[in-house]
Amino acid sequence: MQALYFDGNLELKEMPQPQPRPGEVLVRVRLAGICRTDLEVLKGYHDFQGIIGHEFVGEVAGPPESPFLGQRVVGEINIPCGVCSRCRQGLALHCRERRVLGLRDKNGAFAEYLTLPAANLHRVPDIVSDEAAVFTEPLAAALSVSEAAPAGPGQRALVVGDGRLGLLVSFTLALRGLDTHLVGHYREHLRLAEPYGITTWLEEELSPDDFDLVVEASGSQGGLRLALERVRPRGTVVLKTTVAGHIPLDPALVVVPEVRVVGSRCGPFAAALRLLARGWLDPRPLISRVFPLSQGLEALDFVRGKGILKVLIAAGPSRES
Amino acid sequence: MQALYFDGNLELKEMPQPQPRPGEVLVRVRLAGICRTDLEVLKGYHDFQGIIGHEFVGEVAGPPESPFLGQRVVGEINIPCGVCSRCRQGLALHCRERRVLGLRDKNGAFAEYLTLPAANLHRVPDIVSDEAAVFTEPLAAALSVSEAAPAGPGQRALVVGDGRLGLLVSFTLALRGLDTHLVGHYREHLRLAEPYGITTWLEEELSPDDFDLVVEASGSQGGLRLALERVRPRGTVVLKTTVAGHIPLDPALVVVPEVRVVGSRCGPFAAALRLLARGWLDPRPLISRVFPLSQGLEALDFVRGKGILKVLIAAGPSRES
Known about the structure:
The structure is a homodimer. Chain A is an alpha/beta fold. Chain A is 23% helix and 29% strand. Chain A is built from ten helices and 19 strands. The first copy, chain A, has helices at residues 36-42, 85-88, 130-133, 136-148, 164-175, 187-190, 221-230, 252-255, 269-278, 296-302; strands at residues 2-6, 10-14, 24-33, 50-51, 55-62, 72-75, 78-79, 99-100, 113-117, 121-123, 156-160, 179-184, 199-202, 211-216, 231-239, 247-249, 260-263, 287-292, 310-314. In chain A, the strands form four sheets. In chain A, strands 3, 5, 6, 9, 10, 18 and 19 form a seven-stranded mixed beta sheet that branches. In chain A, helix 5 (164-175) links the parallel strand 11 and strand 12. In chain A, helix 4 packs across helix 5 and helix 4 packs across helix 9. Chains A and B meet through strand 15, strand 16, helix 8 and strand 17 of A and strand 15, strand 16, helix 8 and strand 17 of B. Strand 17 of chain A pairs antiparallel with strand 17 (260-263) of chain B.
């Protein structure tokens, strides 16, 4: 099969179809999404070597006895060991020995096939298209903000960053009823938030008010500073993105206003699929372009362009855009 | 009266006795404590001009009709406006117009007399000595960790920093029943924690385990990094101290383990006095030296010495050490 393989260099290469281990299924990938983390991996983050990619929708192609056979699925990306103290304490997501699809000791989704434990799968409701289902993983990550900061619906929230993740986070906050604001750099991205009743701001025009909850989803050096400047005393800042290197932090901005800064990573797939199935949230306007897997290298180049939102890779032969 | 006055330069000078405004009382200062924040003020923090000092115990000397007259008191240091939206939202501690004793638009405690709103006062139980009562403000600040991070008594806590605040924080965590650890640089400071059943570590010998709760009370550049390295996934780091300038923060240390970083400042005076009155906590072994107010400049010099803990200033004439 074809796959985008990284070992310091990224190349599209012909590889043997993977064999599912006990407990695993074989998934034929239909669509995969490029995430900023994939670009970090290409810079050496995680020291990963293998097939990259972790956002996907596919159909289960084996083993023949799998109850999922033939079904359309998405899959959680963390594969914990299941036996260590963290796994037993309910912190499986933080298992030190975990493998992570396309990120850590586990070949990923930019390929014709992948394998994953059956326990990681979620069936995709028929009403959810492939183009929407491929957003399940980032949408779940956006929803994890609600787990990190259970702000009430009467509160005011600001999302910093109008990229893929910032937009999805703002949609989910609006669905919770919060008075949601989004600040970014691209008018055409901000426009995507308007159907959700979100108040949008170009950064230089942001109102001087403060917010109960600020979500930093820009992945930029200035994002954390802006978040800390705009959160109210005793408010919450949720950090959704990592940036390479260090951010200079003025601790007085945390200590004096007694602010809470919470890191947030992966989230609940089932909740994301419920929102997609209801149609309360449609991520498809975020798709900038779909590339066939055979043009995967071009796709990873294209996604770095200014103002590009979601870029998808279609592994099947019939999906060239 | 004599007072330590700062206007860019610090000097001991003769000043008129302050007149209480309506709602205020006049307090004759008995003992005052030097805090790291006072040293920051002398470096220009807060742009403060006036009499410095905010930790004190004294007796109420006026007005004659005050129900507190003649009583021994300690006093909360924040004086909120009481009418702004933050004050009305229960965030008076974060009132933008607040004055703060010895720190912001309000003359402080390194003087023979100070004034403070009667609403800020707490009567000191007779059983609590001046030498213990003068620790009420920093002990309350230590107790605010419990408000910021309500960790259960079955959890493991690490306090980073064996200075005045770190020691007090470790004592209060031990009293909550937590398996409490303290890491620092001075064996003779760490020894002060042993009566509380606290496990103490020199930094280079700290066990590699992780902790549910880590309190950064070192005020050092490396303190936050150590805290983030030692907190468990989804654990809490409480930041108690500011440092001048910026700390380089690796956001991956917050985002990936989904850690919570909470700033914490002032705390509950009444709770601090209850602990002191019970004798469950005795801060007096932290006293390094008592200086008379007439030697206040020497006291502020002495406190900067290596391994010095609490330095007190006795305003009364009979307390020279």
